[in-house]
Amino acid sequence: MLPKIRKTAYVLSSGAEQGLGLIEVLVTLLVFSIGILGMASAQLDAKRASHEATQRTLATSLGRDIIERMRSNPQALSSYAITELGSSIVDAGTDCSVSSCSPTLLAKRDLYEWNELLLGASQRFTVQGSTSYAGGLAEARACIAVASGKISVALAWRGFNSMENASGSNCGQSSGLYGPSHEKRRLLFLSTYVAY
After folding, report:
1. Residue 151 — φ and ψ, nearest 5°?
2. For residue 158, what is the enclosing H or E element?
3. Three-state secondary structure call for residue 63
4. C-beta of residue 185 within 8 angstroms of C-beta of residue 172
5. pLDDT tens-place string over residues 33-89
6. Count of beta carbons in the 10 Å neighbourhood of residue 179
7. CA distance linking residue 4 with residue 12, whole number of Å
8. Does the CA dihedral 40-42-45-51 come out positive or negative?
9. Which residue of 27, 53, 127, 152 sits 20 to 30 Å from the alpha carbon of 34, by its own alpha carbon?
10. Residues 9-23: what's their mean pLDDT?
11. pTM of the model
12. Using N-to-C axis directions, what is the helix angle for 20-71 and 103-119, rounded to 10°?
């Protein structure tokens, strides 16, 4: 024999239900808004991290590019040494792709072309008569040192977030572009040896 189940119905008075739906909707909107703000913040952080990674990848590629240019022209290694590149346009010199160049002239042309890559000059845009570059590293500076075949290439650029100032080179620190204590300065330092 089965036990009897008692059915009980609870009835709320109509006065207790008033306004309950509106409060639920407002709480739901509040929770939804906080979630959307969190997602937007996460998206912004992801975009910044992606930009930082892109800049580091570009810096690595540029560093390898100039080292390979120097390896292909070992007779003029000392001509590649430069204190700081990126702040001004370098003299184009002779276009060695259309005429014959000495190793020194080739080094001068390589520095010009590399500076253009560093600044992102291939992607120009003009706003109200002022031309700016869209590619390249942000606020880029580069330094190249050559001593008895040892090559040191330092690339500095501006990052988004503040970090401890990178060590290994003071390239770009005199520019004042990276904050009062250089906390937004990013640095890539490459070192190799080229037999000449």
Report:
1. -110, 130
2. strand 150-158
3. helix
4. yes
5. 999 999 998 998 888 888 888 888 999 999 999 999 999 998 888 888 888 877 666
6. 13
7. 26
8. negative
9. 53
10. 62
11. 0.71
12. 180
